[in-house]
């Protein structure tokens, strides 16, 4: 039996608040290895359908295997959830009862050094969810000017020393190519000294990942489409992992009268879940109902 590495965060909370029922249609905009999707499908049978997106072909293949028992009731799409409406129309989903977005990367990306998401293991500076896309982290580090680098480190990484790190990268690449995760982490460590358990390159790597994959742009483009695709009374559940995403979601729900908030404050993981799955520590779930 296949062992699935990624543990779906806040699974019970998602199911409780999405309330999937038989014969309903759902979207999983970030299906990953299919953990949330499998539980949703179990509840929408008989008659239910799921449209499952992922930009990562490896994740998509795993999800297909995991959800194979549901046959054509699960439609898999290798695309960004930012193309939600066009893909939904193409596959016969005119409206749905619930949408789940589990944002950010998965443990699969972190554990595979060849994907270049983590400074914990040496690997190429990549960070692409969709490896068919041309832009990767190495290109950004090699070609963007100091101003551009400083901007993404400041905005996407919320790094106070963004300018200093950008300057150090531009100086370092004059003498040698920065082509691995370790190369970059070493340059950052010359600027930001380590204090406590958090590696000094953490925010820089976050910023690069967001920039490579246009994560915030995707979310901004997708949110209005989620509203349009949901049926009245349909539920939108979004799990975010950093303040930039959470702020966008919070502002979107508050920006119109289309939504009834299910919870006033974001739902977070229990102590038990955090102990079993440390990644859930930073997860925040917001849920709203379309009025």
Written account of the structure:
Helix content is 44%, strand content 15%. By secondary structure, it is α/β, with parallel strands linked by helices. Helix 3 links the parallel strand 2 (49-54) and strand 3. The protein has helices at 11-18, 35-44, 57-66, 84-90, 107-111, 137-143, 146-155, 162-175, 181-191, 202-213, 215-229, 243-254, 271-276; strands at 25-28, 49-54, 74-78, 96-102, 230-240, 259-261, 284-290. The protein has 13 helices and 7 strands. The chain has a 7-stranded mixed β-sheet with strand order 3-2-1-4-5-7-6, sandwiched between helices. The longest helix has 15 residues, at 215-229. It folds into 2 domains: 11-102 and 215-290, Vaccinia Virus protein VP39 (Rossmann fold); 113-213, DNA polymerase, domain 1. The radius of gyration is 20 Å and the shape is globular.
Biggest beta sheet attributes: 7 strands, mixed
Taken as a percent bin, the fraction of beta residues is: 5-15%
How would you describe the oligomerization state of the chains in this entry?
single chain
| Helix vs. strand class | alpha/beta
Poorly predicted runs are: none
Number of strands: 7
**C-alpha end-to-end distance:** 43 Å
Number of helices: 13
Number of structural domains: 2
Gyration radius, to the nearest Å? 20 Å
**CATH level-4 homologous superfamily of the largest domain:** Vaccinia Virus protein VP39
How much is the average pLDDT? 95
Indicate the CATH architecture of the largest domain: 3-Layer(aba) Sandwich
The coarse silhouette is globular
The level of helicity is 40-55%
Q: Return the CATH topology of the largest domain.
A: Rossmann fold
Give the spatial strand order of the biggest sheet: 3-2-1-4-5-7-6
